[in-house]
Design brief:
Strand order of the largest sheet: 2-6-3-5-4-7
Largest sheet: 6 strands, mixed, barrel
Number of helices: 2
Radius of gyration: 13 Å
Order of helices and strands: HEEEEEEHE
Distance between the termini: 31 Å
Helix content: 10-25%
């Protein structure tokens, strides 16, 4: 059985870049699909997300503004296609945030931490 890294362990491997792109707005989540917009198989339990314009492979820290919980996700799909939403999280990402339906979040681009 393949297990996804937890939000805590994933977050510790990343740091925000000095030129981090920040957005604030409503996040939603989705748990079904066959292929993502970048062509990979959709993993509903993965730490991934859909964004309208960020390049595929970009890692962003998504922080729930209400609870302060955060998770680092990889952009691998396009969306959301509902007006007023800025990011669509996979079910696994939403669970890591403790999210139910939708929530107000901030997103910041992150870079891999150096191994020194």
């Amino acid at each position: 059985m393949h297990s996804s890294p937890t939000a805590a362990t994933t977050a510790s491997k990343h740091k925000e870049t000095p030129s981090a792109v920040a957005q604030h707005g409503l996040a939603s989540w989705y748990g079904s699909g066959h292929r993502t917009a970048n062509g990979e198989r959709f993993d509903p339990n993965g730490l991934t997300a859909a964004h309208r314009s960020l390049p595929f492979g970009t890692r962003v820290r998504v922080a729930d503004k209400r609870t302060g919980r955060s998770v680092v996700v990889r952009i691998n799909d396009r969306g959301p296609f509902v007006h007023g939403r800025i990011i669509d999280l996979s079910r696994g990402s939403a669970r890591a945030l403790g999210m139910g339906g939708t929530t107000y979040v901030s997103i910041h681009r992150v870079a891999e931490a150096s191994a020194d």
